[in-house]
Amino acid sequence: xxxxxxxxxxxxxxxxxxxxxxxxxxxxxxxxxxxxxxxxxxxxxxxxxxxxxxxxxxxxxxxxxxxxxxxxxxxxxxxxxxxxxxxxxxxxxxxxxxxxxxxxxxxxxxxxxxxxxxxxxxxxxxxxxxxxxxxxxxxxxxxxxxxxxxxxxxxxxxxxxxxxxxxxxxxxxxxxxxxxxxxxxxxxxxxxxxxxxxxxxxxxxxxxxxxxxxxxxxxxxxxxxxxxxxxxxxxxxxxxxxxxxxxxxxxxxxxxxxxxxxxxxxxxxxxxxxxxxxxxxxxxxxxxxxxxxxxxxxxxxxxxxxxxxxxxxxxxxxxxxxxxxxxxxxxxxxxxxxxxxxxxxxxxxxxxxxxxxxxxxxxxxxxxxxxxxxxxxxxxxxxxxxxxxxxxxxxxxxxxxxxxxxxxxxxxxxxxxxxxxxxxxxx
Amino acid sequence: xxxxxxxxxxxxxxxxxxxxxxxxxxxxxxxxxxxxxxxxxxxxxxxxxxxxxxxxxxxxxxxxxxxxxxxxxxxxxxxxxxxxxxxxxxxxxxxxxxxxxxxxxxxxxxxxxxxxxxxxxxxxxxxxxxxxxxxxxxxxxxxxxxxxxxxxxxxxxxxxxxxxxxxxxxxxxxxxxxxxxxxxxxxxxxxxxxxxxxxxxxxxxxxxxxxxxxxxxxxxxxxxxxxxxxxxxxxxxxxxxxxxxxxxxxxxxxxxxxxxxxxxxxxxxxxxxxxxxxxxxxxxxxxxxxxxxxxxxxxxxxxxxxxxxxxxxxxxxxxxxxxxxxxxxxxxxxxxxxxxxxxxxxxxxxxxxxxxxxxxxxxxxxxxxxxxxxxxxxxxxxxxxxxxxxxxxxxxxxxxxxxxxxxxxxxxxxxxxxxxxxxxxxxxxxxxxxxxxxxxxxxxxxxxxxxxxxxxxxxxxxxxxxxxxxxxxxxxxxxxxxxxxxxxxxxxxxxxxxxxxxxxxxxxxxxxxxxxxxxxxxxxxxxxxxxxxxxxxxxxxxxxxxxxxxxxxxxxxxxxxxxxxxxxxxxxxxxxxxxxxxxxxxxxx
Lengths: 427, 589
Description:
Number of strands of chain B: 24
Number of helices of chain A: 17
Distance between the termini of chain B: 38 Å
CATH class of chain B: Alpha Beta
Number of strands of chain A: 6
CATH superfamily of chain B: FAD/NAD(P)-binding domain
Strand content of chain B: 15-25%
Largest sheet of chain A: 2 strands, antiparallel
Radius of gyration of chain A: 22 Å
Oligomer: heterodimer
Structural class of chain B: alpha/beta
Low-confidence stretches of chain B: none
Largest interface: A-B, 33 and 35 residues
Strand order of the largest sheet of chain A: 1-2
Order of helices and strands of chain A: HHHEEHHHHHHEEHHHHHHEEHH
Low-confidence stretches of chain A: 1-29, 423-427
Number of helices of chain B: 12
């Protein structure tokens, strides 16, 4: 009995540990955040490949903290049970991975095991990285060899006993980790990126209650750290079914397109990874995601209450139409349109509620340098009002999604904190 | 003891419109540029939320975006025989502070001066004779022409995405535009804003009187726009909170919505905020600026060496920093000698209210430069013979938004408070509109800026002293404009009108306009100007002074278009000429 309870506790905790770099850019987008680190000058072919792969893997997104040096780590990854800090992967021999051999690095990427033999927590996405080839691992290793050493020891993970004992991860691995016995770069370049280095499923695949990827539901949308990452499949309402491959590629490159803007953790991914990729990589990802089938049959939700819709519309016209326009069409590639939007229509309303409560920031890129934000309305709208306007945008202009209740809003408000209006300066 | 920092290629003092323009241009040329701004960092996504940007009490009445006068103000008097007293509340003009400067809370009225405005002295002498320009009217020709600035006006208009209708394309007058404007090379980047009812009525009445109305050129974007730098603006929502407010919709052009998203990403640009430059440092011979000294927010002093020093603060701050740093000869009104502080000018405004009984005007629908204007009485667009003044101004009906606390026009005879006042407001709010006039102020021997002998700022430095009054020329001109406005007001067919003439001496209390100019003007002669035509100091060739500081006198237009064009003109000269032979004068005295 005691043993079972402990195992269950570990598994539940691990659901949080799998969280992949869930952080938003700083609220203040200008000056923009540092990075991404450019490819080293005069690199040989292996190092150049390694940089290319490190971009695909968004290494810098996690192994970098605000105010810190690139790849020196120290970024806190919040889990329900405490914080895990990303590792220093610079060439410092004491605090980084300067003493690691190429075999050590491969063992970490492929098997989730550190040079000293201890287990990595699955916050490091080895469950996906296991699909890269040895040649790719060696290239990334060669690239990381060019990163100047930074002596910096990230803070100790803040995990309670027994989760702070790394050997416990062995049990989790038994349940959820299948090392790839014969990794190849196939079957398609897009699938190789998405399932491997890109580790898209870290956010976008639903998790079992024990925290592993739900088998057979790859990329159907996942909930993580009080965000819902929408489906990346052919579902027309909740996924990318209405997007062209060019739409996907544009979104990955510029952080926005005529259908959506990248914000929250996806802003980081665009900043450090997808905006830095080659066009061919983005096209390959787009083709794979567009063709990825949707298995979930979603029944049509019941029509929302007319009174709630009327209340939602009144709030929408007052508060939202300024940017999103009365017809919801907004200003494509600037203020995101709401009709047809996956974030708006996802069955799980977490993200749309959180946008209204806390606001969000769209990433700025070289191609689309204007930083944008949606302001928070949590300080001026009640739970019932947020629920009404969320229900309204989810069920207007051809949209369809389950109604949002005030209690759902209240629960999320408690978790994400109460946003405040910018305090007035004293005179 | 100041900490000496590593040298930079260029240091900019102040980071509003001109600072952002110059920084963008100089970083493009590969220079390592540092801008120092004494106010806060501010950006649209973080600070200008549409969820509360329209808070009238917070932003206008409590002055959140404006300069803090308990840190620094200026002293004011009408004439040299008076003792100047500190301005303890903002009134006649609203000074900015922080990144973006006053360009954050402007209306977005973007004009080009008339070709004849650049020849204010020679043109008027030629047309009206010597008597038209009295001895104590110290107006001068600009050292640049309209044609010199045309490409730079154009560049700024496309940067901002100005909404308007050209009136003169390469010399061909265009229907629907301003027929009096100088020739422009191409149409505005965006069509005019949609026009509300009151300006439309004004336009019809004015046209019926033979005037030439046209839509105001507006830095309020009439549609989504991506400027040549790749920075995006959103469409204006006509919320009516431009002047005195920041725009939460990315619709009003300011440094934040046009330049900073690109500039801030550059590796060769650095911005230091909450840091105040206290002086420009000179070499022992006084002929080279060696850099600046500034205090950071903790009060620590730093010396920042630089190869090139650019003053890009508001005009009053530029002039004061020159005086405090001992650069250039201070102006002495008794002798007329000296150049720093010389030819300070302002503008003169008036209005005419029109009250309707039968027309709902919805005045709360507004934008900063939303209106119908006419330039029939601006500059020298009309014959001044026998009028007793030179210069002019525009007349127009602008619907900038009838903010509820601020807006309470009442007809003549209404008490200033109480039940009758409330009744009049309730009756007239939706049915009242106002025509504005906006007139030039010529420079005058007795109007100038210097350092106050008594009052000091929070750092112990002398305050700037402003000695200014309207002269007979301005009053006659403004009365003439007000009469012309009243004619149109009557023709609009309302119940009654109320003409509000500008009477008496200039008063610092009621808001008039934040269009202060001069004090370190540009010219062809070092005896009567501080800079040459590239805004380069005659005395210190590696010092450039931007802004309306350079205007020899004020025109009847809002200054920002010309301020920006002059900044681009200077930047081009620095890039194409100065950098090839640094520290050398671009014009031989």
